[in-house]
Design a protein that fits this description.
It is a single chain. With 378 residues, the chain is of the alpha/beta class. Helix content is 42%, strand content 12%. The protein contains 14 helices and eleven strands. Helix 6 links the parallel strand 4 and strand 5. The radius of gyration is 20 Å and the shape is globular. Bound molecules: flavin mononucleotide. Flavin mononucleotide binds next to strand 9 and helix 10. Flavin mononucleotide (FMN) binds next to strand 9 and helix 10.
């Protein structure tokens, strides 16, 4: 195994992840599709980590504006994130009957919250290739992605433009596929993670490996640097990730709890409360498997026999309830995205969170460095 950390004292931050991304600390604020903000991205990048912006839900012109806004807030490297696969099979053919079946379990909530029932509209796609074109033209520092392997031409162009590529995997086989495609940095995301599973070789349900098991297997399977994601919420998690062979960490849920995130007040409050102790995986929120705080809406949509539309049709449908629930301050009917370590969230200030992490990790990193180098010598 390639040594994950250099062996001189207090040098934990100098990994291949920090050098290839051009950052001081190998700490990445994970993209938070739908809840990313330019401010959070820039705050993390300005601190010396890598801020990421989840842009998959945006039209190309909006992505262009976001990049310009982030650039006005930071001169440091940042990542723009897209989803390679933007829809499930069936999204183009799903019709009004399926729509009516999937509307049934949430129709009562929409009406009780004073809304009008939505009507069927055929799927209008946003194309990954068009979004990626904006990232390439803008020469973003880092192009991060999930849910697949980008086409060769896009990866070739990134290489030619000096854009660092970083892709998420949920199994060692997916890591090998990304390495073979020439991706620079691999994010190994355990099932503890908040938000969507990005599995692309097998179904998400058949790719549920925890971070503790996944990270060392991915680190052994590929020679490119590996970032650990899923369930990392404090210095203990960061140190453990490094001991497992990661050269960086990606954290999402703890950053959602910060005031700079796009999460609404009720969501952030839930993340910082005892409610966050129970999270659940569901396809009910969007059509793809994703993790959020267990609430009434997850429970109802996870019931056997509930018809779920293909991604992203289910997402658009459920939004009808969620938007009204947010206005009515009813967290039990919101999408409270969160990973399994949400209950460890303490900080509401992203810069303070990073400062605390760096201080605490620096205190123990040397012994992990020693342990890792002794392990490599055996
Ligand atoms: C609300 C939310 C949205 C997310 N959106 C994306 C996304 O669009 N693209 C992506 O690659 N990862 C996305 N993630 C995953 C995070 O970037 C990160 O890898 C994950 O949250 C790490 O696990 P943790 O939640 O336990 O910290 C999202 C996570 C959350 C909680």
């Amino acid at each position: 195994m390639e040594q994950a950390l250099t062996s001189s004292p207090s040098q934990w931050k100098k990994t291949r992840v920090s050098s290839s991304l051009g950052i001081e600390f190998p700490i990445i604020q994970g993209p938070l599709g739908g809840l990313s903000t330019q401010q959070l991205t820039a705050t993390v990048s300005n601190f010396g980590g890598l801020g990421s912006f989840g842009a998959h839900g945006l039209a190309p012109s909006a992505i262009k504006d976001v990049i310009a806004e982030i650039r006005a807030l930071t001169t440091k490297p940042f990542a723009m994130n897209l989803w390679v696969s933007m829809e499930d099979e069936g999204a183009f053919t799903s019709g009004s009957e399926a729509f009516a079946r999937s509307l049934r379990p949430i129709a009562g909530h929409i009406q009780a919250l004073g809304g009008t029932l939505p009507t069927y509209k055929p799927y209008a796609p946003i194309k990954f290739e068009d979004q990626a074109r904006v990232l390439l033209d803008a020469k973003v520092p880092v192009f991060s992605f999930i849910a697949g392997v980008p086409p060769k031409e896009i990866l070739d162009e990134c290489r030619a433009q000096g854009i660092v590529t970083m892709g998420t995997v949920t199994t060692p086989d997916e890591a090998i596929a990304l390495e073979q495609a020439g991706v620079n940095v691999i994010v190994a995301s355990g099932f503890e993670a908040g938000g969507h599973r990005g599995s692309f070789l097998r179904s998400s349900e058949d790719s549920l490996t925890g971070t503790f098991s996944l990270v060392p297997q991915v680190a052994d399977a590929v020679s490119v640097p590996v970032v650990a994601a899923g369930g990392i919420a404090d210095a203990r998690g960061v140190v453990a990730a490094f001991a497992l062979g990661a050269e960086g960490v990606q954290m999402g849920t703890v950053f959602l709890a910060s005031e700079e995130s796009g999460a609404n007040m009720h969501h952030r409050k839930a993340l910082l409360s005892g409610d966050a102790r129970r999270t659940t995986l569901t396809r009910g929120f969007t059509g793809r498997l994703a993790r959020g705080i267990h609430n009434q809406l997850i429970e109802e949509l996870n019931r056997p026999g509930v018809d779920i539309l293909p991604y992203p049709l289910q997402r658009a449908l459920v939004k009808n309830v969620v938007t009204l629930a947010e206005k009515a301050a009813k967290p039990e009917l919101m999408q409270l995205w969160a990973g399994q370590s949400a209950n460890l969230s303490r900080q509401t200030d992203a810069k303070m969170l990073l400062q605390t992490l760096v201080t605490e990790v620096s205190g123990v990193a040397d012994s992990v460095v020693r342990w890792n180098s002794e392990r490599d010598d055996r």
